[in-house]
Amino acid sequence: MNLMIITNLNEKPELFEQTLNLIEDSLGYFEPYRFDIDFHPLMEKMNWKNNYVIFDQKNNLVVSHIGVNVRILKNSFMTSPIALLGGISVHRDYRGKGLFKKLMDYVVSKFNKKVSLFILWSDLKELYNKFNFYEAGIVFQTGNMNLSENKSIELFFEKTKLSSLNKSEIQELKLIYESYSEENLTYIERGDEHWDMLKNITSCDLYLFKRKGKIQGYFFANKGLDLQNIIHEIGIKNSFKKEFLDHISPYKLWLPEKLNHNEDFSKNTFLAFFKVGSKKLFKELVHQLSNKNIVVKNIFNESILYIDRDVQKKESIEYFLNYLLNRTDKFETNFISNPIYFSGLESI
Questions:
Q1: Does a cis peptide bond (omega within 30 degrees of 0) precede residue 256?
Q2: At a CB cut-off of 8 Å and minimum separation 6, what does 16 contact?
Q3: Are residues 303 and 242 in the same domain?
Q4: Which of 57, 87, 195, 271 has the fewest CB atoms below 10 angstroms from its CB?
């Protein structure tokens, strides 16, 4: 009898609380924060079929977890399925036994033909590089002021929660999100069901920018332990964009690129860890993101053979992902009209 089995929370819902405790212990979560609230889309019941665990039957113990949230990456001319991984954890008494590799390999095999990219967030570069996840993309922070220490922002914005909005206000927010994102970003698609789930992330604050009696823009700030005082999502109508950004750029605002009128940005970091999924879907994604300038010919374990504007090249996957996704001086390609960006509401 195999005492260590891989299952999911849909098959064994009684393991939910134990799994949540494992995640929070591994990630250093503490009250008043709860992982299942801060990362509700990953942990909510409808997604339990994608919450994979290793269960030690002898000791009746959940010893490892990886959650998967399948979403759609989109911009004005393309869509592509991606897998967001989160809640990655191994019980402290079971580390060093190969369980993380066993579960990661299992999860990747379940989704490898269904998504173009696997994406996760971590500071464990050395560990995830071993599994062919690489840092790529870029996020700029515009300022250093903390929202919690300067309440003057509330002179210009109405602070609230997404769950407090009425149907009309939520509809206004959805329209601004779609129009702003489609014009400026390659982003994660949000249907009505996603907006409903986001209402449960109560550690996230919503600031509304109202003019002429209507919502003209908004930003989301804070979430859980990791995004305190970070403005991680914005949406604004073009006619109010300069005024809106002038108000919030002194704060810790995250954007996928430098503000055109503010070159004195504070700092930058990578967007996420990326791993190639389905070769077919990845090739299609690259072709679209590069404005059809790149054709991927073959993908090996650690390298990619491709044709870039009629020139054949072979580079490491890590280099290629940065070449494709990073808009910096080192990797200035002008391939993506709209850079990839993930709101803190989507990160898991």
A1: no
A2: 9, 48
A3: no
A4: 57
Q: What is the mean pLDDT of the chain?
A: 93
The residues that bridge with 120 in the sheet, in sequence order, are 85, 273
- Give the C-alpha separation, 268 to 25, whole Å: 29
Q: What is the pLDDT of residue 2?
A: 76
The last residue of one of the domains, among 269, 285, 312, is: 269
pLDDT in tens, 5-60: 999 999 999 999 999 999 999 999 988 999 999 999 999 999 999 999 999 999 99
Q: Is 294 helix (H, G, I), strand (E, B) or coil?
A: strand
Strand (E) positions, the chain?
Answer: 4-8, 51-56, 61-75, 78-90, 117-120, 134-136, 139-141, 158-160, 187-188, 205-211, 214-221, 231-236, 254-255, 267-269, 272-276, 294-299, 303-308, 311-316
Task: Provide the domain count of the chain.
Answer: 3
Structure tokens of 119? 């994406």
* Spatial contact of 187 and 169, defined as CB atoms under 8 Å apart: no
State yes or no: pLDDT of 109 exceeds 70. Answer: yes
Tell me: do 130 and 148 sit in the same domain: no
> CA-CA distances (angstroms) from residue 252 to 98, 142, 195, 201?
39, 6, 24, 20
Strand 61-75 relative to strand 187-188: parallel, antiparallel, unpaired?
antiparallel
On whether both 11 and 85 belong to a single domain, the answer is yes
Residue 263's pLDDT band, with cuts at 50, 70 and 90, is: low
Residues 8 and 129 in one domain: yes
| 193: in domain | yes
pLDDT value of position 336 = 57
Residue 261 and residue 151 share a domain: yes
Tally of CA atoms within 13 A in the half-sphere of 126 that contains its CB = 0
Domain with 306 in it? 276-325
